[in-house]
Design goal:
Layout (H helix, E strand, L loop, with lengths): L11 E4 L2 H15 L5 E4 L4 H9 L5 E4 L21 E5 L16 E5 L7 H4 L5 E5 L10 E4 L16 H23 L2 H20 L8 H11 L4 H14 L7 E3 L9 E5 L2 H13 L19 E5 L7 H18 L3
Parallel strand pairs: 2-3, 2-4, 4-5, 5-6
Antiparallel strand pairs: 1-7, 6-7, 8-9, 9-10
């Protein structure tokens, strides 16, 4: 990748997934503390995180969040006590750093969507983790760190598991098939890629142990860790923010001086949201959904996310902009 390098100012440990990094942190806290409740955000990645962690811990509770509002920090004291652990998600890389009060519970932050954001690099939390495959060109990967503190992880206790090492290989092959599909547009590449991804997602959901990362896989992940993946996103997003038609039935989720995970568009009307989704897919722009199976009480709650990372050039942004603006023009008087 032709990107600048950034200094990671913390000690870290590499895992195969974000959820394993999270489990490691909880196990670590558990060794030294009596945890009463583990608080997870209600609006979150349901399968991969909320359901998955329930296999390991039975004291999981949920708190309400406003994932598309960033004006107020979440009031942790309203639901958690000092003996609890609270997981805060850095929604789309747009959340502010928490103000830690004296009696605060142990705070863990998830920076999967805010990798390299200021809050990620200068966190005040007790522990942080991220799923790295959301931001880096790697088959699988997670990272955990303890802000401003040395991290010593005894990886000897992690188990070796050939089925997991095989899942890495399947995910790696799926990545290669996706690349071929992009280059040659062959349906067989697309099928292989989707089959590989589905197999691995299911596998990850069903395995609840921490697996020792093979040295070769660790080296693969580390090769990309220091790349500044935010700069290109910032430029691509600026182009889109400046050139998309401003319309009152779509909110663009953005925050001044922050770089969002992607182009996040929010709707009140589910039909309109689905109509834009369909239009984009018909034009081979594949948005992601963060996340299905979540309920929000706010009026603005239907969202799509369009990737704008280092894989995409300004020409791709022009293509995306034209497609969204065409859809807006066709739909604004309806
Ligand atoms: C915000 C967030 N954190 C963590 C995870 C879990 O990451 P992984 O799939 O690497 O375990 C996900 C989804 O996969 C996620 O969306």
């Amino acid at each position: 990748m032709n990107l600048d390098l950034i200094d990671l100012n913390f000690d870290y440990e590499i895992f195969y997934s974000g959820r394993q990094a999270f489990k490691y942190i909880l196990d670590e806290i558990h060794l030294k503390n009596d945890i009463e409740k583990i608080w997870m955000p209600e609006y979150y990645c349901q399968n991969a995180m909320n359901d998955w962690i329930k296999h390991n811990y039975n004291n999981i509770y949920f708190y309400k969040t406003k994932p598309f509002k960033f004006d107020k920090a979440i009031d942790i004291s309203a639901f958690a006590s000092k003996k609890d652990v609270v997981l805060l998600n850095n929604y789309w890389g747009l959340c502010s750093t928490i103000d830690k009060t004296k009696n605060a519970p142990i705070i863990i932050e998830d920076h999967s969507h805010g990798w390299l954001s200021d809050r990620c690099l200068n966190s005040q939390a007790g522990y942080c983790f991220a799923s790295l495959r959301k931001s880096l060109p790697i088959p699988l990967g997670g990272i955990c760190w303890k802000p401003k503190t040395k991290l010593t992880v005894d990886t000897e206790n992690f188990i070796e598991d050939n089925s997991f090492y095989n899942a890495w290989n399947i995910a790696y092959k799926a990545m290669c098939e996706k690349k071929l599909y992009k280059e040659y547009d062959k349906a067989s590449n697309k099928q292989n890629y989707l089959a590989g991804v589905n197999t691995v997602e299911l596998f990850l959901d069903q395995h609840h142990k921490i697996i020792k990362v093979k040295e070769s896989d660790k080296a693969y992940i580390k090769k990309y860790l220091n790349y500044n993946v935010l700069e290109i996103k910032k430029n691509n997003l600026k182009f889109l923010y400046d050139s998309l038609i401003n319309i009152n039935f779509i909110k663009i989720i953005r925050r001044k001086n922050y770089t969002a995970f992607g182009l996040i568009l929010l709707f009140k009307d589910e039909k309109q949201c689905n109509s834009l989704k369909t239009h984009l897919i018909q034009n081979e722009i594949y948005p992601s959904f963060l996340w299905p199976n979540n309920e929000l009480s706010s009026k603005w709650k239907f969202s799509i996310n369009i990737h704008v990372d280092f894989r995409y050039t300004i020409d791709d942004m022009i293509y995306i902009k034209n497609n969204i603006n065409n859809w807006i023009t066709a739909n604004k008087t309806k």
